[in-house]
Design the sequence.
């Protein structure tokens, strides 16, 4: 093993054309077994259970009957939940389908799980209990192939925690969940629930009489007419607040559900909430139409489950209630409160029932409820059909799935979708106005979409690595390395040149979701000869930036945009900057490069091809030599200032160690304030193609401390 100083090559200035690789796929490989839902094809997931609630396996296409607005539809595509396409019956011939529709999903059998936390409708005590359940769910029930995202209806967490496997970042996202306090619009002197306010707004005389009685009892000198006016005014304020918060909750849910459309595979949203109302039947003109979310779920292939975080409740004595004690008409009050408890669940029940899920309610064992949800997604069926109704009138179409030849079975699926509406097609004037919209506005909207996505956008594939290192004069910093695939960028011919314009924007958020560093956007204008353009497309565009940051956990989000087409690529990665002031032994991240298998001249500085930067992708050929570099900080020293730190490089394939280096001494004498890196290399010829983990185990013999830094790489 030979030492080389490689880091200078890793922090080269923008822009650089670099190594040709295919960006790493993250999340796991996506296999589109069905095309996205459009007007010509409707896709639905179906769960079938027996009387005891157990999943029913082994059903065939001919077992199902699909109705749309009461009319039988022909099932043209069918598969079970394990991704095995099955033929349809002779009377329902399959339509020609793209190859990707019937591709196997053996590469990845996981699920996308969105944990939607309705912190706008959750008391502090209930959220604290729910967080414990969330942690157990992630630690004990989420599979190794599952990806979990966390969103809040209030927009905290920096809007979201993107899909990731269970780990430190996901656990900390759950820890950061906090309730959002709300003022009491009733003013504290009248016991009026949101449901009672809705009843009053709908003209319910008993609900109004109850409020008036309680106002008169608490304020005996108030005229009855004034008490009635006050009750109606209070009800109006409560309904306005109710609708405002329910709009925020349901709008977030709809946006997230629609955004999941590009993903293939099982997609589950678990909505955790104390419950909410939507203002239907009141004077409010902003009541939310829940069918919008049902439509979004049908088009995106998402199942919504509800978890009522109120648990078991005793009527009229809910400890989480924000209302004042009851003074009069206890029987009527108890009846209204009982109705209110049920009404607060109605919206969640509607969302779950109409998207193929269910609600976990009336239990303090939320962990068991989450387990039911996980089991419910083990077996399901996917059906698709072409609607016989070709009208584009924008009306909601109801879907029903039956099992006419199988008695005693229960079917759960999505209940419908909105048909396309030709009446809402833009007019010529509207099209002209849209064309006149500034490119800046379109750019801003595109970048916002990329930054807020729960998963990497792949219109332009992007590889990303975010790595900690401390180097003077900036000190502790995060180095952002990216490789942008130019294969889908639009090059336009201008004379003998091929021209394209791309922009890369990077924002780094701290653990609370606040912007910690907003790196200057980089716009690259390429004007290349045809030969050079082919090289650029083959090799990609390399981007590297560094941001000085203090100790903490950070989320790096990067968006690449092709100005010619508006196509987007995005990637995100978590990185932790350690607190070096603690004096504890610490390591930088591992920086990787790739060189030729025989490169003896590099150590002596002889002419030759320098190692290639592969930090953004970490992919190698078997003919390559892998070069790695790491920095060691805060070594222990004896009275004479001497250090004794050794390092061993290990290569692991899953649970098995396949290679290891001898212990090597780490030189730590700084020069001009710059610590020396430990750099070494090893050939990859002996490794079979596949995924590996490089572990650098460092032992400080003076202080007795040990540290391990890990990095995964792929041999092709």
Sequence:
């Amino acid at each position: 093993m030979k030492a080389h100083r490689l880091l200078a090559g890793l922090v080269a200035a923008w822009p650089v054309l670099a190594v040709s690789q295919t960006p790493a796929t993250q999340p796991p490989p996506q296999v589109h077994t069905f095309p996205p839902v459009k007007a010509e094809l409707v896709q639905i997931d179906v769960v079938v259970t027996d009387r005891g609630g157990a999943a029913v396996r082994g059903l065939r296409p001919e077992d199902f009957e699909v109705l749309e607005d009461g009319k039988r539809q022909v099932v043209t595509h069918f598969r079970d939940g394990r991704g095995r396409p099955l033929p349809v019956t002779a009377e329902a011939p399959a339509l020609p389908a793209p190859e990707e529709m019937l591709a196997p999903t053996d590469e990845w059998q996981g699920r996308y799980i969105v944990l939607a936390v309705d912190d706008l409708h959750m008391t502090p005590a209930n959220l604290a209990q729910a967080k414990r359940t969330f942690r157990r769910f992630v630690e004990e029930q989420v599979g190794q192939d599952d990806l979990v995202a966390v969103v809040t209806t209030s927009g905290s967490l920096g809007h979201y925690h993107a899909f990731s496997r269970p780990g430190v970042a996901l656990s900390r996202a759950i820890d950061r969940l906090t309730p959002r306090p709300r003022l009491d619009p009733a003013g504290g002197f009248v016991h009026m629930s949101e449901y009672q306010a809705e009843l009053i707004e709908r003209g319910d005389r008993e609900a109004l009489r109850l409020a008036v009685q309680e106002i008169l009892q608490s304020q005996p000198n108030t005229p009855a007419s004034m008490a009635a006016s006050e009750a109606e005014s209070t009800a109006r304020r409560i309904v306005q607040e109710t609708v405002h918060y329910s709009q925020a909750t349901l709008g977030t849910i709809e946006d997230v559900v629609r955004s999941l459309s590009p993903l293939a595979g099982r997609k589950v949203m678990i909505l955790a909430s104390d419950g909410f109302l939507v203002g239907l039947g009141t004077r409010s003109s902003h009541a939310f139409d829940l069918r919008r979310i049902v439509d979004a779920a049908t088009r995106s292939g998402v199942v919504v489950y509800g978890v009522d975080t109120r648990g078991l409740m005793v009527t009229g004595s809910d400890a989480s209630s924000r209302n004042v004690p009851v003074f009069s008409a206890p029987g009527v009050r108890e009846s209204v409160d009982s109705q209110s408890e049920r009404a607060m669940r109605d919206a969640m029940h509607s969302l779950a029932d109409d998207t193929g899920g269910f609600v976990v309610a009336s239990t303090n064992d939320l962990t068991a409820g989450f387990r039911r949800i996980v089991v419910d997604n083990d077996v399901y069926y996917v059906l698709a059909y072409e609607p016989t109704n070709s009208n584009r009138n924008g009306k909601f179409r109801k879907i029903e799935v039956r099992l006419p030849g199988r008695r005693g079975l229960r079917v759960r699926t999505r209940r419908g979708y909105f048909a396309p509406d030709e009446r809402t097609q833009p007019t010529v004037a509207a099209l002209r106005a849209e064309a006149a919209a500034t490119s800046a506005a379109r750019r801003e909207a595109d970048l916002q979409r990329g930054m807020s996505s729960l998963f990497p956008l792949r219109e332009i594939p992007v590889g990303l690595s975010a790595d900690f290192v401390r180097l003077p004069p900036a000190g502790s910093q995060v180095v952002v390395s990216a490789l942008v695939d130019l294969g889908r960028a639009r090059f336009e011919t201008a004379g003998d040149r091929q021209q394209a314009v791309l922009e890369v924007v990077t924002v780094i958020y701290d653990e609370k979701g606040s912007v910690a560093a907003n790196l200057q956007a980089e716009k690259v204008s390429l004007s290349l000869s045809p030969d050079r353009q082919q090289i650029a497309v083959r090799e990609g565009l390399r981007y590297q930036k560094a941001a000085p940051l203090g100790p903490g956990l950070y989320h790096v989000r990067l968006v690449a945009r092709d100005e010619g087409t508006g196509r987007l690529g995005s990637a995100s990665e978590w990185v932790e900057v350690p607190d070096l002031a603690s004096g504890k032994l610490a390591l930088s991240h591992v920086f990787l490069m790739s060189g030729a298998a025989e490169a003896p001249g590099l150590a002596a500085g002889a002419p030759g091809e320098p190692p290639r930067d592969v930090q953004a992708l970490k992919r190698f050929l078997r003919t390559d030599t892998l070069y790695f570099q790491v920095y060691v900080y805060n070594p222990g020293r004896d009275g004479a200032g001497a250090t004794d730190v050794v390092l061993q490089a290990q290569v692991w394939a899953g649970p098995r160690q396949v290679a290891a280096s001898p212990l090597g001494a780490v030189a730590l004498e700084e020069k001009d304030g710059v610590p020396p890196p430990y750099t070494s290399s090893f050939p990859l010829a002996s490794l079979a193609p596949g995924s590996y983990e490089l572990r650098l185990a460092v032992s400080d013999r003076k202080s007795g401390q040990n540290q391990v830094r890990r990095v995964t790489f792929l041999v092709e």
Summary: The chain is about 25% helix and 30% strand. The radius of gyration is 30 Å.
